[in-house]
Amino acid sequence: MSSDDESPDDASPSGIRWPKPATETLIGRALRLRCPRCGDGKMFRGMFSMNERCPNCNLRYERAPGYFLGSSYINYGLTAVAILVLYVALHYWLKLSNQQLAAPLGIFCVVFPLLFFRQARSLWLALDCRWDPALMTSDEDE
What we know:
Elements: H1 23-31, H2 69-93, H3 98-131
Helix pairs in contact: 1-3, 2-3
């Protein structure tokens, strides 16, 4: 980290204790792709590029190398549940054959995780903020 362009606490003084939001608030912020701590800063600057820190409260989004590995479990789990529901609905209620369903559900398995990538990361960070109270203090941002 260079001293000219980024200091550990650019946006907030050291030691600020942010109020711990309710779980519903954290999930709402995550689905809107906002910082789980302050609710204002955007987490992403592009489809797949994530900001390093919140521009408002300076929360470091990636806590450690490989931190967002857990978000892939969220993404995978939701994709699996969606495929199960879609398969049952389309196969048993609409009477579509497995051959008719293979291509559309295969495409869904590729496209949905790509589109849900940002929300999965955001939800992972929101869950971390829910259970790790240290993330609600600006001292952790260094």
